[in-house]
Amino acid sequence: MISKPFTARAHTNIALIKYWGKKDKQLILPMNSSLSLTLDRFYTDTEVYFDSDLKQDLFYLNDEKKDAAKVAHFMDLVRSKSELKAFAHIKSINHVPTTAGLASSASAYAALALAASRAAGMQLSLPELSRLARRGSGSASRSIYGGFVEWQRGHDDLSSFAVPIEENTDWNICMIAVVIDKARKKISSRVGMQRVVETSPFYPAWIKSAEHDLTAIKKAIKERNLKKVGEITEENAMKMHALNMSASPHFSYFESATIEVMHLVELLRSEGICCYYTLDAGPNVKILCSVEDSEEILRRLAVKFDKKQLLIAHPGPGVQLINKK
């Protein structure tokens, strides 16, 4: 028996209010709620079909066979929900640098959640898809939706999922990704956040602060206040990275070029351009700005960075099934 193949596309999201720390590692329940912007530029396409003749799940990433252990654990959840016994053939194409702080795992597991569940014969609701995607990667729960999305921390498996804040936003904003390093991170997000939770003396203050930031940024989004959204985004990111530097042993994802970009953004602001930076678990910087200002920001960045390192993205859509060409 070979099931009908399904292919799903999901886009990455960049957290404006960060999730950094789990209260349940198995269920991937976050310590704090978070909020993100789904981007159109970076995405993952994943095809899944089940084959009763397979002895194990097969996983291909960018046409290269990979160890399927982590993906197989996720597929076990799909099999459990669908009561399907067969193993699956999984083929993913990543249109985003992997493991470099550009949220490739978010798009990867959101696409896998939709493609695998449909191939297994299930028609999950969007909240159910968000919960399923969360089990692969926490941030994947947010990539189920487009635009601005909140991942509600909840208190158990059923109550922790993402909800759209403004899915089809008409706000004329964009995000410039400065790709400083595509290499694999020395410290993964999972290892980094766990170290922070266990050792940073400032972690309890982060939880309070993040929840306050979440309330404030939702108000600023509703009011279309880019300055306020940017300020909250930038400060929240810096608080997250300060946690890393206060952990034991301390660590940082910054590189010298990371600091250069941050300084340039601050200089541009002093010249009257409304732009703000944010960083996830990696050295790459994302700059939030208006579409109108993006050309000048790119021009200034191009003085120090190759054009291939400068990628502009706009608000993107939620996960969807696609037809293979």
TrEMBL record:
Sequence intervals crossing the membrane: none
Determine if Metal-binding is one of this entry's keywords.
no
Q: Which domain of life is it from?
A: Bacteria
Any one GO cellular component localisation term in the record: cytosol
Domain Mvd1 C-terminal: start-end pairs: 176-308
Full protein name: diphosphomevalonate decarboxylase
For the keyword Lipid metabolism, the answer is yes
Cross-referenced PANTHER family, in alphabetical order?
DIPHOSPHOMEVALONATE DECARBOXYLASE
Q: Which GO terms describe its molecular function?
A: ATP binding; diphosphomevalonate decarboxylase activity
Q: Which organism is it from?
A: Liquorilactobacillus uvarum DSM 19971
- Pfam families from the UniProt entry: MDD_C, MVD-like_N
Q: Which UniProt keywords apply?
A: ATP-binding, Lipid biosynthesis, Lipid metabolism, Lyase, Nucleotide-binding
Record Gene3D superfamilies: 3.30.230.10, GHMP kinase, C-terminal domain
**Enzyme Commission number(s):** 4.1.1.33
GO BP annotations of the record are: isopentenyl diphosphate biosynthetic process, mevalonate pathway
